[in-house]
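Running this now, will post back.
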Amino acid sequence: MQSIDLNSDMGEGMPNDALLMPYISSANIACGFHAGNEQIMQQTIALCIQHKVAIGAHPGFNDKENFGRRSLSLSDTELWECIQQQVDTLRQICNDMGAQLHHIKLHGALYNMVSADVVLAEKVAYILHQLYPQVWVYALSGSCFIHACKTLGLPTASEVFADRTYQDNGQLTPRTANNALIQTTESALQQVVSMVLHQQVHTVTNAIIPIDADTICLHGDGAHAVEFAKSIYQTLQQNSIGIKTL
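Update: finished.
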């Protein structure tokens, strides 16, 4: 049976985490900078262990006021420390709880910046290769960041989004745009089926672009997150596609 990973951003203080767990195969857990704290990390890891969900670190900018969604300019040293402090914090909690860190997925503005900026992508890929060479990296499908990670030999997963719209260049539509978020279950399912079964996605201009899909992201803070997750899970099962961790 064909399978795909279904991931969700979690540990951000939202009420949906426990409800989403039965439908996903990996979780990206906030590490305290853009959201979350040590107690929430512990609680979320416990849920992952209970549901056999792979555990990922979800580091972002140290900017809780803007939920890590405001672009910041960091020096190379600051960037290294920003990533290492967050990932190591979550990894230590995993170790203390008898769990293992499976992957790293950047959050918010940092995720978008490395997806579009070649120089920054190479810097962050180098940091991850130096610190965590065996840990999977979830990166935007087709982006310069996933290319940089692959070039260094990092294990990578091409990430696509069930609840976000796409630009013609393969980048996500900025959240500042009115059409950035997918609001209906029907539209989310159409996009997921197109990406997984046909390796393509319709953009906001109705262009069709090719896309590789190893893991599907569903934002845990979305208004329809649980409904989307359940419907995506059921639809993929009906199409003989299992939900499985990479």
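DSSP finds eight helices and ten strands in the chain. More later if anyone needs it.
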